[in-house]
Structure formats: C-alpha cells, structure tokens
C-alpha cells in the first residue's frame, strides 16, 4: 500500500473519530435533511457554507469531506457535496462560512474569509434545508434556508465589514 493511501486513510479515520453522528444513537423520531453548499472562487479555492455542530456535538461537513478527498492533489480543488439527516426537533445549529484552498501554502498566501455562529430552529419532518452564505471584504453572512422556498429559517449570522482572517487565525 502506498504511503499516500495510508496517510489518506489515517486522515479519514482521524476526522471520523472527531465527529458525532448527527442523529443520536437510539433516536427513532422524524428527521429532516440539511445540506452544505459551496461557491467556487477559482480552480484552487471555494467558499464553503456548512453545518459544523448540532447542540455542541461536532459533525462531518462538506469542508472536511472535501479536504480528505483532495488530500495530496496539489493546487486544484474539487469540492464534494455533502448533507446529512438531523432529528426534526428544536436544536442549536453551529453554521460556518469559510474560504478553503487546495493546499495549505495557498491558504497562508491568500485571503481566507470566515463567519460563524449558532442558530436555533426546529427542522420540520421530511423537509430539506441548505446552509448558504456569502463571503467578502464588505459583508459576510451564513444562514440556513428552506430548500424549497429559499427562505431563511433563522436569523443570518452576519459580519458587516471585512471577515478576512489574520495570518495566525488561518
């Protein structure tokens, strides 16, 4: 087995060990679906808008899945679509909007925007939702919207002004 495959498997195991199942063990109630989204910035980067945690429990996201899938691929980034079922009950959802680059050196040399926060809402059984957002110099926001209507289901997390991270925050 090649060294890069072993590293990729180890990275996947590490990511899986750090995340919880969004549907708790023993839960048998109704569920809804929340998908993450992304907007390309170029061949080497994209802005990711994702669900990072439910009620304080970290979960897997399109950013973590994309990072694992693109590991060792150089300076090109191929985002991976990702979503998950969640219990249809009141909860606190941690949402994040963040710029991600294909290689760590690109992240250090370029602008990385980030906005994050927590929203509370009750997903309706059988409904689908999407984490959406926008990142930029003057305004950044992340929110969850109903996939069918496009309407936000909770207040947006917003930064009016520059949401670029400093070198030590990347």
Q: Care to describe what's here?
A:
The protein is an alpha+beta fold and 170 residues long. The protein has one domain (3-20, 31-160). It is 18% helix and 39% strand. The chain has helices at 3-17, 62-70, 104-109, and strands spanning 31-35, 37-42, 45-54, 57-58, 83-87, 91-101, 114-121, 128-134, 139-146, 157-160. Strands 5-1-8-9-10 form a five-stranded mixed sheet, with no helix packed on it. Strands 2, 3, 4, 6 and 7 form a five-stranded antiparallel sheet that branches. A hairpin with a 2-residue loop joins strand 3 and strand 4 (57-58). The longest helix has 15 residues, at 3-17. It is globular, with a radius of gyration of 16 Å.
Whole-angstrom Rg: 16 Å
Average the pLDDT over all residues and give the rounded result.
90
The major pleated sheet works out as:
5 strands, mixed
Order of helices and strands: HEEEEHEEHEEEE
Number of structurally distinct domains? 1
Briefly note the structural class of the backbone: alpha+beta
C-alpha geometry = globular
Helix content estimate: 10-25%
**Unreliable stretches, pLDDT < 50, 5 or more residues?**
4-11
Trace the largest sheet across and list its strands. Answer: 5-1-8-9-10
Number of helical elements: 3
Descriptive tags:
5-stranded mixed sheet, 18% helix, globular
In short:
18% of the residues lie in helices and 39% in strands.
Spell out the blueprint of helices and strands.
Layout: H1 3-17, E1 31-35, E2 37-42, E3 45-54, E4 57-58, H2 62-70, E5 83-87, E6 91-101, H3 104-109, E7 114-121, E8 128-134, E9 139-146, E10 157-160
């Amino acid at each position: 087995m090649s060294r890069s495959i072993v590293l990729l498997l180890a990275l996947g195991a590490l990511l899986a060990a750090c995340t919880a199942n969004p549907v708790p063990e023993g839960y048998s109630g109704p569920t809804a679906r929340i998908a993450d989204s992304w907007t390309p910035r170029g061949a080497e980067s994209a802005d990711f808008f994702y669900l990072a945690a439910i009620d304080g429990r970290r979960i897997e996201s399109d950013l973590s899945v994309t990072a694992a899938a693109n590991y060792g691929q150089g300076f090109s980034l191929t985002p991976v679509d990702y979503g998950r079922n969640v219990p249809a009950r009141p909860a606190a959802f941690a949402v994040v909007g963040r710029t991600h680059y294909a290689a760590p050196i690109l992240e250090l040399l370029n602008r990385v925007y980030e906005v994050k926060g927590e929203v509370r809402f009750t997903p309706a059984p059988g409904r689908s939702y999407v984490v959406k957002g926008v990142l930029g110099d003057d305004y950044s926001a992340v929110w969850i919207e109903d996939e069918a209507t496009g309407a936000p289901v909770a207040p947006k997390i917003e930064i009016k002004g520059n949401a670029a991270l400093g070198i030590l925050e990347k």
